[in-house]
Amino acid sequence: MTLQECYAAMGGSYDDAIARLRSEKLVQKFVLKFLNDGSYDLLCRSIEAQDYGEAFRAAHTIKGVCQNLSFNKLADSSARLTETLRDGWNESAGALVEEVKADYLVTAEAIRAFAGE
After folding, report:
1. pLDDT tens digits, one per residue of 79-93
2. 9, 113 Cβ separation under 8 angstroms
3. For residues 14-26, b (16+ Cβ closer than 10 Å) or e, as one string?
4. What is the pTM of this model?
């Protein structure tokens, strides 16, 4: 799988990432580092512990990283979750958490396929 195919599989924008970081090698470096970021695990643990302030921070971090790397689908769902959690938990947050989880899994699968795992 090429890096462009990885971006297509995850619903991202390869062209935007290259335009932002100016180098495929640099984009590749940060794409491969993404799975080592602990923000997703922190989000899941925080939601389970009902620590919505920490969940907000984790979702915000995921959003920012995804926007910088042009992981558009995950950036969009994590942005909506961030805004929902800004004032604490509400009834729409649960569905958004599930959407972020699904989008994260698609993104992680694409990256693992790109990495040859």
Report:
1. 999 999 998 899 899
2. yes
3. beebbeebeeeee
4. 0.94
